[in-house]
Amino acid sequence: MSPATKRAHRVGIVLALMAVVAAWVLGVAAAQAAPGLCVGPVCGDLFSRSSQMDWQLHLRIEDQRGQRERIVVDCRHGEISPQQGPIERGLAAAVARRACRLVNPALSSSDGEDLAASLLQSNAGRA
Prior knowledge:
The protein is α+β, with helices and mostly antiparallel strands. It is built from three helices and five strands. The protein is rod-shaped. It starts with a helix and ends with a helix.
């Protein structure tokens, strides 16, 4: 083999390895971003209830740009705190309202209660 052929072969191997690593990294990132509950481009996960106030729900929300924040939801009135943040508040409030409907047994059907219980249990270990 000539030196130019050897160099071209090495470059091809390096490019193939880079493509494999990039595909693995993108696949892992997509798997880690598996949402718990989505409304449009905003998803919520890591749901937990307040131990002192059962009407409060804590969750983490994330948008498609990768911006994340933790919010507290008053499920009695549908208010979220903080009222300003990097994620668009209309979509954040929609995720919060949907999570409250799933978690609140008075407003949800038995299937919703089972889903809410599974969401709370699956996220208990991650918090």
